[in-house]
Design goal:
Blueprint: E1 3-6, H1 8-12, H2 21-34, E2 38-44, H3 56-61, E3 71-76, H4 79-85, E4 91-99, H5 102-109, H6 113-130, E5 133-139, H7 152-165, E6 169-173, H8 181-194, E7 199-203, E8 205-206, H9 211-220, E9 225-228, E10 245-246, H10 249-258, H11 267-283
Parallel strand pairs: 1-2, 1-9, 2-3, 3-4, 4-5, 5-6, 6-7, 7-9
Antiparallel strand pairs: 8-10
Helix pairs in contact: 2-11, 7-8, 8-9
Length: 284
């Protein structure tokens, strides 16, 4: 069975107009009824950096979690954000973007990779105290436009450092849509073989005509955990072939059906969630 993380946070964070808190809450509560493994629902970062998600704490307080088995994941950019997220027992996963590109790490978090790894170590200690789990996203996981080193061996070196810190969940993240089967396959094949005790996930971006080959490459190389967003929204909505958005959850479900590993989701709730998705992103 494929395990899916639905990422409304990634879909909403760059949206140009503020989505009202009540609409976010209604949408997320619908998603909680679908039955996804994990819901990437919000982030604890500077509201100056991500104003769209400044209401994450308020949203969290209004989520209907009692009847849902879906786990919540919140993204943070530093230790301060992790300390905030750790105050909420409703959150099971705290996600942190660690770039394999030095240039992007500086641009994204104003820190070096070495400093970011120090944050990862301290977040891991924090999670050990609170009973939460850290998810480390290896951003620029399939290459970068800056000329910084990238290869499956580089990914292995980063993973080895994370392994030494006790991190057990790592997601390769296609930050700029650079992934191709030629980069996806060796990355997952080598990492899943070298670190069988680590759960590797794929956070892929795609254009409408390249989604299948990307998912298939990751799947055939051993990946069973995928991130998606209904409608393919995220960063730039997938309006034309030239724009690269999140992997559409609808396509992941289509692939899962094809390979006989479809997750057991509530179809009526999923239909409601798709309607909410269209209402939110069309209206705002």
């Amino acid at each position: 069975m494929l395990h899916l993380t639905e990422c409304p946070r990634d879909a909403m964070q760059g949206w140009p107009t503020f989505i009202p808190t009540a609409d976010k809450v209604a949408y997320l509560n619908t998603l909680l009824r679908v039955g996804f493994d994990t819901l990437d629902f919000g982030s604890f970062v500077s509201p100056k950096a991500i104003p769209q998600l400044a209401d994450t704490a308020e949203v969290l307080d209004r989520l209907e979690l009692g009847q849902s088995n879906t786990r919540l994941l919140a993204i943070v950019a530093n230790l301060r954000g992790a300390e905030t997220a750790a105050q909420y027992s409703q959150i099971q996963y705290i996600g942190f973007p660690l770039s394999v590109s030095e240039t992007f790490q500086q641009r994204n978090t104003n820190k070096s990779i070495a400093q970011a790894l120090d944050d990862v170590a301290r977040m891991q200690e924090l999670c050990a105290r609170t009973g939460q789990q850290q998810v480390v996203y290896l951003s620029m996981g399939f290459g970068n436009p800056y000329g910084d080193p990238w290869s499956p061996e580089v990914l292995g070196q980063f993973t080895q450092k994370l392994d030494a810190l006790g991190v057990t969940i790592v997601a390769l993240s296609d930050t700029i849509g650079a992934s191709t089967p030629a980069t996806i396959s060796p990355a997952f094949r080598e990492l899943t073989a070298a670190f069988p005790h680590i759960r590797f996930g794929a956070h892929l971006h795609t254009t409408p005509d390249s989604w299948h080959e990307k998912v298939q490459a990751a799947y055939e190389a051993g990946c069973r955990h995928f991130d998606g967003a209904l409608g393919g929204y995220g960063g730039c909505p997938m309006a034309t072939d030239q724009l690269t958005g999140n992997m559409p959850t609808e396509r992941l479900l289509e692939f899962a059906q094809q390979v006989g590993e479809a997750p057991n989701l509530q179809t009526e709730a999923l239909a409601d969630a798709i309607q909410w998705n269209q209402r939110i992103f069309a209206a705002h």
